Amino acid sequence: MGPLDLVRLTPLMSRSKGRRDVKVALIDGPIALGHPDLNRSRIQELPTNVHGSCSRLESMACMHGTFVAGMLVARRGTAAPAICPDCTLILRPIFPEHSSHNHSMPSATPAQLASAIHDSVRAGARVINLSAAITDSSAIGERHLQDALDYAAHRSVLVVAAAGNRGTVGGSVITGHPWVIPVVACDMQGRPTAESNLGSSIGRRGLAAPGENIVSLSGDGKTQSTSGTSAAAPFVTGTIALLQSEFTAAGAAQIMLALTHKDQHRRSIAPPLLDAWAAYEALSRN
């Protein structure tokens, strides 16, 4: 059994490759747009001071962005999951390749993330994939980020966020927002990995998805294997994009409920495992 089977994405992917009018925003590093397994015609780059195409294929920012892009929109039949290849990917790069922390998890300030969320929503995104460590946090910056997430909620744009890889129990302005679906990484038995952050809001509104040794595209034109919540989040994002493609009249809140079975009384700090096919069946009954 592979990662796609664990979360029952395989039958949903057999029904759909996504739709061009379903736009998935990737707030991440630049992408190796020349990779032979990426369909450039469905990648829409937003203007920003961080270039969307990699200039240093070995940089952590490039490797990270290309990996997540491959999980979502790589060509089917490659080593990458390629969950929704016919959807349009909105590329909103946020991690520069010249970062002094080139070998650590890409990070951004709350203000930078807020700006990227606003840009993605205005560009027509239906769902946003967000995997970033927050640096230089401040009350003002977190207020800007809270406002940006409120804006996404007001425009019915779902936000999927990696819960983080510090192995802590707690939350953040992102994972604590009621409109965000936090995602923890799990092993192939569905158990959260030791590195994944957990917490009450994560357990109540979040999901778990495969996050150990996930294979996707690499900046050098080949493939790479990565573990962590950044590798887990795109399973949820891709599922949402496929559900939006199949159920064009379904609202964002309806899709969120079908996926998460949100229960304010859930006490666990660990969320349930993503079940893509159960969400499809739930929406089919409506």
**Tally of separate domains:** 1
Whole-Å distance between the termini? 30 Å
Q: Order of strands across the widest beta sheet?
A: 2-3-1-5-7-8-9
Radius of gyration: 17 Å
Tell me what portion of residues adopts beta-strand conformation. 15-25%
CATH superfamily, please?
Peptidase S8/S53 domain
Please write the string of helix (H) and strand (E) elements. Answer: HHEEHEEHEEHEEHEEEHHH
**Helical content band:** 25-40%
Q: What gross morphology would you assign?
A: globular
Would you tell me the structural class of the helices and strands? alpha/beta
Are there runs of 5+ residues with pLDDT below 50, and where?
none
Oligomer: single chain
Total beta-strand segments: 11
The tally of helices reads 9
CATH level 1 class label = Alpha Beta
| CATH architecture descriptor text | 3-Layer(aba) Sandwich
Rounded mean pLDDT score: 91
- What is the CATH T-level topology? Rossmann fold
